[in-house]
Amino acid sequence: MAELRAGVLRPGLERLGRWAATRVRQRLLTAFDAAHTWERHGFTLEHEDQWACS
Predict the structure, then answer these.
(1) Range of the domain at 24
(2) HEC readout, 9-50
């Protein structure tokens, strides 16, 4: 998962001059909490301009 995240973030961070492969991976590994991997967040459209959590 850390490798996938690093690959996705790389182009944008390189454009900003902020790419540091070790730091990108370490930030995910430090903050990762497996207890949060199964949370579901749903959204429904109540009005054409407003989103509400369901």
Answers:
(1) 1-33
(2) HHHHHHHCCCCCHHHHHHHHHHHCCHHHCCCCCCEEEEECCE
Q: Which residues touch 54 (CB under 8 Å, ≥6 apart)?
A: 42, 43, 44
pLDDT at 54 over 50: no
Is 49 among the domain residues?
A: no
In this prediction, residue 35 carries a pLDDT of 74
- Tell which wins on pLDDT, 46 or 3: 3
Q: What's the chain's Rg over C-alpha atoms?
A: 16
- Give the span between the Cα atoms of 6 and 32, in whole angstroms: 14
Counting the structural domains of the chain, the total is: 1
